Amino acid sequence: MRIVIAGGHGQIALRLERLLHARGDEVAGIVRRPEQAGDLLAAGAEPVVCDLESASVGDVARHLEGADAAVFAAGAGPGSGAARKDTVDRGAATLFADATEAAGVRRFVVVSSMGADREPPKGTDPVFAAYLRAKGAADADVRARAGLDWTILRPGRLTDDPGVGQVTLADATGRGAVSRDDVAAVLAALLDEPGTAGRTLELIGGDVPVADAVRNAASH
After folding, report:
1. pTM for the complete prediction?
2. ∠ CA(29), CA(217), CA(26), 5° rounding?
3. What is the pLDDT of residues 82-137, one digit of tens each?
4. How far apart are CA 16 and CA 181, in angstroms?
5. CB atoms within 10 A of CB 110
6. Which of 11, 95, 104, 117 has its CA 20 to 30 A from that of 150?
7. R_g of the chain, CA atoms, integer Å
8. Cα(191)–Cα(174) distance, rounded to whole angstroms?
9. Is the CB of residue 26 less than 8 Å from the CB of residue 191?
C-alpha cells in the first residue's frame, strides 16, 4: 500500500512512517522544509517538499497520484499563533482533502483533537481555542465529503511515554492521555480497516489491544 502523509515531520507522523515502512508499505511524507528530509529518510519514508499553506490543489494532487490512502497529520505546532492555526489546522486540511479527492484517492484519515466539536470553555487560552476551532472546522469539512472514505481520530492529551499497545477507542471515551506511539499504532491499524470509514473516534490509553480496539470500532 502507498500512503501519503501530510505533516510528515510531525512527532506522530514520524512514528507512523516507521511503522508503515517496517510492515512493507510505501510511504511518502509531505514536509515544508528541505532540511527535514533526512529525518523522513531515516524513518523509511520518501520526503516530499511542499508547503501546504501556499501550494495549489493541483500541486498537492500530483504527490497523491497512485496512493492508496492519505493521512492528514499536519499542524501549525507549538509557538505558532492563532492565524497559523487557521491556515494550517483548517486551511491545509481542507486543501489536502481537496487534493486527495482530485487524485482519486478515497481512504483519508485525519489526526484531529479531542474537544474539536465543542466551543472551547470560557477562559481557554486564546491560541488553543483557535486551534480547537480550526480542527473542528476542518473535521466538519471532511465529514461533508462523499468522495472520501474518511476516518477522524481524536486523541486525548499526548505524551511521549513508550507505547503499550493497549488503548480505549470509541465514539466517546472521556478525557485521558495517550502516548504518541499508541496513536501511530492506531493510525496504522485504521488504514487497514475500511469498516471505520465515516467514523469520528476518540482515543485514550486503555486495556484493549490496538488491533482489537480498531476491529471493535469497525463493528459498531
Report:
1. 0.95
2. 20
3. 888 888 889 999 999 999 999 999 999 999 999 888 888 888 898 889 889 999 99
4. 8
5. 26
6. 11
7. 16
8. 24
9. no
Backbone phi, psi, residue 210, to 5°? -55, -50
Q: In this structure, what is the dihedral angle of CA atoms 37, 179, 123, 119, given to the nearest 10 degrees?
A: 80
Instruction: Output the nine-digit C-alpha cell for 175.
Output: 478525557
* Cell output for 182: 499508541
Report the alpha-carbon distance of residue 26 to residue 120 in Å, rounded: 38
Residue listed under C-alpha cell 515544508: 32
Catalytic residue among 131, 132, 142, 170: 131
131 flagged as catalytic: yes
pLDDT tens track for 170-212: 999 999 999 999 999 999 999 999 999 999 999 999 999 999 9
pLDDT in tens, 20-79: 999 999 999 999 999 999 999 999 999 999 999 999 999 999 999 999 999 999 987 777
Give which of 124, 123, 121, 151 is closest to 139, Cα–Cα. 151
Would you give the distance in Å from CA 184 to the centre of its chain?
A: 9
